């Protein structure tokens, strides 16, 4: 069943069919939702010769061990045009230098995928994306991206959230179905036990009202299309509307919600049952 909601609420539906990559938007009726102020939250492929990739001012991030050859990461900044800055990690000290190069290429391409989708027709006004390495060891790197972008004709900045978990040994991106399954998580999302991450009671109440306009089938379809790598439909690649990551036995995944509710919400699910 085609899902009935989108990553952002605009006065009219907008569809990006850009450079072989599109992002879907459909109008959502908010008449029954008690709106709250949108959250101010903190979402890319390869640079051309004129584009610059510079080291960000942020310090080195996660480290996996205490020996001299510990695997580590540092934040770089991709700045393909004025008013666009996308932070992404570069991994160092992998045992296999060839795999390390492939991993860093994959991380950079995924970090810049949203920019690639939005900028192709020249309507992107600005974008600011930060990254945080949530977990890093010799098997996996888990990166969370938060930020916003604004289109030239857009009435407001749009908050974005996306993640990238990379299997460092197989050099591939992992998704929600590698940790659980979409149908089970959709059922949890529709249940009384659902927990939304870092929301107050007022926003949670509004999110539950929005949830009531959806179905298990809607969320199953959404989550089956979640995460990198980009999926294709109608011959074009769709930027996912949902992303997930696993950290310390908790699975987190996002759903798109109306702009008045923050553009996205994050659901947390304890994998250990606690």
Identify the notable features of this structure and list them briefly:
7-stranded mixed sheet, alpha+beta, 274 residues
Largest beta-sheet details? 7 strands, mixed
Global mean pLDDT: 81
β-strand amount: 25-35%
Q: How much helix is in the residues?
A: 10-25%
Number of strands: 15
Sheet with most strands: strand arrangement: 3-4-5-6-7-8-9
Gap between N and C termini, in Å?
32 Å
Residue stretches low in confidence (pLDDT < 50, at least 5 long) are 1-20, 23-54, 56-68
What is the rounded Rg? 18 Å
Shape: globular
> How many alpha or pi helices?
5
Order of SSEs? EEEEEHHEEEEHEHHEEEEE
Q: By helix and strand content, what is the structural category? A: alpha+beta
List the helices and strands and how they pair.
Layout lengths: L15 E3 L2 E3 L28 E4 L16 E8 L4 E9 L4 H15 L1 H7 L4 E13 L3 E12 L6 E10 L4 E3 L7 H8 L5 E2 L4 H11 L4 H9 L6 E3 L2 E3 L5 E4 L2 E7 L7 E7 L4
Parallel strand pairs: 2-12, 5-6
Antiparallel strand pairs: 1-2, 3-4, 4-5, 6-7, 7-8, 8-9, 10-15, 11-12, 13-14, 14-15
Helix pairs in contact: 3-5
């Amino acid at each position: 069943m085609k899902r009935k909601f989108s990553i952002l609420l605009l006065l009219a539906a907008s569809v990006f069919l850009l450079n072989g990559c599109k992002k879907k938007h459909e109008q959502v009726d908010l008449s029954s939702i008690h709106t709250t102020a949108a959250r101010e939250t903190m979402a890319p492929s390869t640079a051309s010769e004129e584009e610059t990739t510079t080291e960000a001012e942020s310090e080195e991030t996660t480290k996996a061990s205490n020996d001299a050859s510990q695997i580590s990461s540092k934040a770089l900044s991709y700045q393909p045009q004025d008013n666009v800055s996308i932070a992404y990690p570069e991994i160092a000290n992998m045992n296999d230098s060839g795999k390390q190069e492939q991993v860093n290429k994959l991380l950079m391409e995924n970090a810049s995928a949203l920019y690639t989708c939005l900028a192709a027709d020249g309507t992107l006004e600005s974008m600011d994306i930060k990254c945080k390495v949530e977990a890093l060891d010799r098997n996996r790197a888990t990166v969370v991206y938060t930020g916003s972008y604004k289109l030239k004709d857009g009435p407001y900045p749009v908050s974005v959230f996306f993640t990238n978990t990379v299997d460092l040994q197989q050099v591939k991106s992992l998704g929600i179905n590698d940790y659980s399954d979409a149908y089970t998580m959709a059922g949890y999302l529709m249940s009384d036990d659902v927990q939304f991450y870092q929301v107050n009671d007022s926003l949670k109440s509004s999110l539950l009202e929005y949830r009531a306009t959806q179905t298990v089938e809607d969320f199953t379809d959404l989550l089956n299309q979640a995460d990198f790598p980009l999926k294709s439909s109608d011959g074009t690649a769709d930027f996912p509307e949902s992303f997930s990551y696993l950290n310390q036995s908790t699975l987190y995944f996002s759903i798109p919600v109306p702009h008045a509710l923050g553009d996205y919400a994050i659901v947390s699910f304890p994998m250990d049952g606690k």
